[in-house]
Amino acid sequence: MLRAIHFFDENRRVDSQRRALAENDLEAYFEGVRASGLSSFRYLQNVYTNKNVAEQGLSLALCLTEHFFDREGVRGVCRVHGGGFAGTIQAYVPADRAADYAAAMNAVFGADSCYVLRIRRSGAVKVF
Fold this sequence. Notes:
Elements: H1 2-22, H2 26-44, H3 57-72, E1 77-81, E2 88-92, H4 98-109
Antiparallel strand pairs: 1-2
């Protein structure tokens, strides 16, 4: 039941986020990212597995990211990304704070555990 609720709500969020990007409304887009991430955590429950509840790296990464935003006064948003269960998180961090954020995450999770990516205007493109 929870997965179905997430699925239908997520489809509505995608439409809303698409509109927000088309209108260059990043605040609305980021609100969709936040809501989607919370739904994944609560309803898909794919941030940690019940087979090993002691392993909660994604939960910790999300928590530390939110603390970084609060402590540093950074306007950012984060969510679980990919399939969950030992996957990764996605964090939208202002470019001028990306190095500080990466250093904070690498200090906890090990060198090169955080990759700084940039979003291109053209989005995904075929390169061959």
